[in-house]
Amino acid sequence: MRDPLAEPSDLIRSVSRALRVLESVGRAPKGLTVKQIARRCELTVATTYHLVRTLAYEGYVIRREDGTYIVGLEVADRYRELVTAFRGPPPVGEALRRAAADTGWSHYLGRFVGGQVAVTAVAEGPRSPYLEDLVPGFDEGAHATALGKSLLATLTAEQRFRYLREYGMRPFTSATLTTTEAFEADLAAGDRRGMQLELGQFRQGVACAAVLVTPDKDIERRVVLACALPASEMMTSARVVRAKLLTVARAVADGIAADT
Question: Which domain holds residue 31?
């Protein structure tokens, strides 16, 4: 959601409009006509036509035979570049993949990106339920994931309050914590446990655990490691999960350190 009060004085309107067009096309997998795009973006048809032609030329949208436009392959290329940049040096990706193969659990890295909690790397494990939302770039539900909790736990109470007030605490399941009081108590329990945890708070029947990999004064350099597994397995294996996470966290930290 764009903040109109934060709009820069030197905003290039044509670039802003082109991005709005691209976003609208991206939200419509069946495609949109120029008139439909114009309506959704509140632009004239003539302006929309010029923007769509430019985006099509650059490969960011594709015109189909029925006259509708869909997202182009250049967007996929940019996403691959984003994933590579987020993942970090090769040893980090190797540590994640090895952990997923050894344990069977999906492993995730997360950090603050532009002030928001985001998933930055993923290695899928065969024993973990598939979580289609948790892909690199996912930046929602920090209050409902162990990854998000682990990062938010590095903030002051006032910083957390402002974060949760800005991004909200929507319920993903009936177990999701939706008050700051309950959330603070949960973080305190995680600190005592030495591992942040959630059981069915993001997805019914799924549990997630997370530990801090690298603390840093710069919040955007703080990294956390998380894994997901069936909630029933977490309830009987929490200590084992913590031990394995800490081992992987050390490998990830070494990989990050070697690159600096």
Answer: 13-74
Q: What is the pLDDT of residue 3?
A: 58
246 found inside a domain? yes
Contact 228, 109 (CB under 8 A): no
Q: Which residue has the tokens 């394995």?
A: 244
User: pLDDT tens for residues 67-117?
Assistant: 999 999 999 898 888 888 777 889 999 999 999 999 999 999 999 998 999
* Residues 69 and 91 occupy one common structural domain: no
β-pairing verdict for 223-230 and 116-123? unpaired
| Non-local CB neighbours of 166 within 8 Å, separated by 6+ positions | none
Q: Is 144 left (phi over 0), alpha (psi -120 to 50) or beta?
A: alpha
Report how far residue 196's alpha carbon sits from residue 242's, in angstroms, rounded to the nearest whole number.
9
* 65 torsion bin: left (phi>0), alpha (psi -120 to 50), beta (else): alpha
N- to C-terminal Cα separation, the chain:
34
Could you tell me which of 97, 108, 105, 99 has the C-alpha nearest to residue 150? 108
With H, G, I as helix, E, B as strand and everything else as coil, classify residue 228.
strand
